[in-house]
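Q: What structure does this chain adopt?
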Amino acid sequence: MEGASSNRNLKNKLEACKCARWEPREQKIFMSAAEHVTAEGHRRGKCFSSTGWERSHELFNKNAGKDWTITQLKNHWGAMRTDHKLLFELLQCTKIACGLSTGGRIDAPK
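A:
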């Protein structure tokens, strides 16, 4: 009987650890939802308010046809912020410029 109990526990752990797989289309939908929620004024510092997360969750799932949790969206937001920070640190170290001052182009020293 112990084997059935451990199988059930393993299954519960696997279900709790489901990871969202982000396709390019879903990235665009998420960013669009984030822009929309920001325009609605649901930001608090560098992140969304509770209402903003709920609204972002609603918009993303409706437009992407997914049933992802707010936690999955928050985790993705955090991962994107980390990636963005690391990219700009790398660009600064290599003296490569990218941004509004270059018109969105990547400008590298010769």
